[in-house]
Design goal:
The protein is mainly β. The protein has four helices and 16 strands. It folds into two domains: about 120 residues, Immunoglobulin-like (Sandwich), CATH 2.60.40.200; about 140 residues, Beta Barrel (Sortase, Chain: A), CATH 2.40.260.10. An eight-stranded mixed beta barrel has the order 9-10-11-12-15-16-14-13.
Length: about 290
């Protein structure tokens, strides 16, 4: 799949106010807690529409007056991948604190995006033997519920191979809820999965589906409520999703038993965002081979 041009609207107005006024629309936000339970502060990475990014470091409890190298790497802190980019080093004050922004160019972010679309990224701060590492995480879809069709599934990242059963999946290369662009959630057209959508779409081309609500829960304990606006049957390609810059949800399933059959795409627009409990937004996925 070709690279996505997705945008991410800011979630916290205060955070946006702190970013330099020349910053463009936010495409995605990653956050990291530095040290055990955030004992050494936070790092926030905003990626913008124009391709560059701002990294905010809010640090404390580190080595006083020490200069820390700042790296963004692939992989995990337990298994570091290659260095994707280096930001300007940060020098702590007399009590081991630092607050400031670092600019990352479009060229630097291209390397970050290449890895972030497929896996995890981390931020690593190092000054001699004083090293801190933390995962840069973003809010993602965790559950999809469509009450009108008795659909309720955990959502996991889409695999590179054949999709499992008993879960829904999101396409990693596209957007997430509350990010402008298409959030594409898909599952098999089987009982207990997206079969009710396929069945409903065959009745008067899915006319009765228009206006039905879809709830997509996210990892920050929110539920994004969408309303179905279009039913697209017999779709032969989903490449158009990569050119959409307004926030949309696409529910996607096959109209036949294998990949050669056309697809069903249900388009929905956001109605509102509501709070959810941690347990409601973090169901236990139990994918099985099928």
């Amino acid at each position: 799949m070709r690279r996505v041009l997705a945008l991410f609207l800011a979630l916290i107005l205060l955070a946006l106010a702190a970013v330099p006024v020349s910053a463009d629309t936010v495409r995605r936000t990653w956050r990291a807690s530095i040290g055990t339970s955030g004992a050494n502060g936070t790092a926030t990475l905003w990626a913008y529409l124009d391709g560059d990014a701002r990294l905010l470091l809010n640090l404390h409890g580190l080595r006083p007056a020490a200069t820390y190298a700042v790296e963004i790497r692939g992989g995990s802190c337990a298994s570091l991948g290659s260095v994707l980019t280096r930001a300007q080093a940060a020098t702590m004050d007399a009590i081991g604190g630092f607050y400031g922004y670092r600019h990352l160019s479009q060229a630097q972010m291209n390397d970050v995006w290449t890895v972030a679309r497929k896996g995890s990224i981390v931020i690593r701060l190092a000054s001699g033997t004083s090293v801190r590492c933390a995962t840069l995480a973003f809010n993602r879809a965790t559950r999809v519920r469509i009450p009108a069709y008795s659909i309720d599934l955990p959502v996991i990242p889409g695999p590179s191979g054949y999709p499992p059963c008993n879960v829904a999946m999101y396409i990693r290369e596209l957007s997430q809820p509350r990010e402008p662009g298409v959030t594409m959630i898909y599952s098999h057209a089987r009982r207990g999965m997206f079969l009710p959508l396929l069945s409903a779409s065959k009745i008067n081309n899915g006319a009765a589906m228009i206006g039905k609500l879809v709830y997509v829960y996210t990892s920050d304990s929110k539920a994004v409520v969408y309303k179905i606006t279009q039913v697209r049957r017999h779709v032969s390609s989903i490449q158009s999703a990569f050119g959409v810059t307004s926030e949309r949800l696409w529910l996607y399933t096959s109209e036949g038993p294998n990949f050669t059959y056309p697809k069903l795409v249900i388009v929905a627009t956001r109605v509102k965002i509501v709070s959810a409990t941690y347990s409601a937004s973090h169901p236990k996925p139990r994918p099985v081979s099928c």
